[in-house]
Amino acid sequence: MAKRDDEYWRVKAGEYVLGTLSEREARRFERLRARDAYYCDMADDWERRFSPLGETLADTDPPPEIWARIERRIAEKPDAARLWDRLGFWRGFGLTAAAVAACLLAFVIVERVVLPPAPVTEKIAVLSDKSSAAWLVTIRQDGRRMTILPLREISIPSGKSLELWLVRGKGEAPVSLGLVPASGRRSVALPETAVRSWPRATQLAITLEPAQGWRPGTPYGQALFAGKITANPDR
Amino acid sequence: MVHAVPNIGTQPASEDDSATGAIRPQLAALIAESAAGDREAFGVLYRQTAGKLFSVCLGILGSRALAEEALQDAYVNVWRNASSFDVAKGSPMTWLISVARYRSLTLRRRAVREVPADIEAEYARLEDPSPGPLADAVASAEARALKLCLERFEEAPRKAVLLAYYRGFTHDELSRELSVPLGTVKSWIRRSLSRLKLCLDNG
């Protein structure tokens, strides 16, 4: 790796920790921080150094109902959606593994780097095979757009493709959401049939289909990955 | 006025940042117990630290409603991610404050924030030099070092750094609020960070 300009990055990390960077610059630094312990250490260092500014603030008692609300939220049963809150889950794929383990605030970074902004994301689904989580699908509030993010390396046999399905209640045919890429984050607009189907959607599933000649509207191959659709826990 | 009054290293320190450090391991233990699912321990952690974190959130968000939301989110995050806390990488308070700050900064970016009209009064309170030697004695060594280093700065760059930390001002907002060009603000912050690092490393 080329020699990095320590002084430049130390200052950049300090600006990030102070919070003076624009949203775009902050996100850019977060992506670096999530991937590389070098940036992680620099930011951790500033967090430690600036911490006394916060520690010497006088206390302000929060209203008593806040604790009740926190208790209610932490009492909710953990489900698939909470997966992303647990660091172990993120350690399972290469994207951030090394840096995540090294960072003081690993979960904050992972949450912000990997997930799209919360207000526009209403539903999510983590699709797994027998061994582990493989895809993260986030669905925008209006149900018209979704983002598909592979969480680990997925190999597709040649001549085959992966197709994503919206699974509804018993007796109802699944709705095709189109083919999915084997790598990289992808955002896709959804057809009207899919938009109308969200209220009764329970799961998302990915099947292996012939690359050509897959029959639109009907899953043909076996389901490789599946996961429940849940509300975005970050609301 | 909803903002807490930040005094750099001069506020009577609460028990958890006592110079003896005796209470710190206790916070770390409470986080570890929370990680194991102990809600009672988590409740104790909340009672010991929520006042501090609420001040942090209020400062950045400038609104009680938003600060309450940030505080809730911060503790829910603490609960869910307690197992990722590693005392070797930072003190419990550093971790907790950072969780609250990042959550507040995120909410702040989403919300349209009303900047306090009386910016001069804000500075005055940031730099209120009041409490005496006793308070200094209990404040941590780190806090004293940071205070000494910041005091060596010229006034304007110091204000910019403090407003950024306590109020979450971006470069653009600092430039607007302090009525100086964006380039000036950026170079104040950069130079301050470089000097701060040198000063803290070398005393």
Q: Strand portion of chain B, in percent?
A: under 5%
Major beta sheet summary of chain A: 8 strands, antiparallel
Annotation, overall tally of beta strands of chain A: 8
Topology of chain B as a string of helices (H) and strands (E): HHHHHHHHHH
Flag low-confidence runs of chain A: 77-99, 114-119
Terminal CA distance of chain A reads 40 Å
> Largest chain-chain contact?
A-B, 52 and 77 residues
- What does the oligomeric state look like here? heterodimer
Globally, the shape of chain B reads globular
Count of DSSP H/I helices of chain B: 10
Tell me, briefly, the overall form of chain A: extended
**Overall mean pLDDT score of chain A?**
76
The helix/strand class of chain A is alpha+beta
Task: Describe the model.
The complex is a heterodimer of chains A (235) and B (203). Chain A is α+β, with helices and mostly antiparallel strands. Chain A is 35% helix and 24% strand. Chain A has helices spanning 6-18, 23-35, 37-55, 65-75, 87-91, 97-102, 106-114, 192-197; strands spanning 121-128, 133-140, 145-150, 160-167, 175-180, 186-189, 203-210, 223-231. In chain A, helix 2 crosses helix 3 (37-55). The two termini of chain A are 40 Å apart. With 203 residues, chain B is mainly alpha-helical. Helix content of chain B is 68%, strand content 0%. Chain B contains ten helices and no strands. In chain B, helix 7 (141-151) packs across helix 10 (182-202). The termini of chain B are far apart. At the A-B interface, helix 1, helix 3, helix 4 and helix 7 of A face helix 2, helix 3, helix 4, helix 7 and helix 8 of B.
Report a brief summary of the structure:
The complex is a heterodimer of chains A (235) and B (203). With 235 residues, chain A is an alpha+beta fold. In chain A, 35% of the residues lie in helices and 24% in strands.
